[in-house]
Amino acid sequence: MAGHGNELRLGWLGTGRMGFNLVRRLLEAGCDVAVYNRTRAKAEPLAALGAKIVSSPAGLSGRDIVFATVGTPQDLIDAVLGEDGLATGESVPAILVDCSTISADVSMQIREQLAAHGTELLAAPVMGNPKVASVGKLTLAVSGPQGAFDTARPYLDLLGAGATYVGDGELARTVKLCHNLFLGVVSQSLAEVTILAQKSGVSRTAFLTCLNKSVMGSQFTRYKSPAFANLDFHPTFTASLLRKDFDLGLAAAREHEVPMPVASLVHQIVQTLIGHGYGEQDFAALVELEAQSSGLQLESENSDISDGLEQADANGGNAVP
Question: Residue 142, SS3?
Answer without folding.
Answer: strand
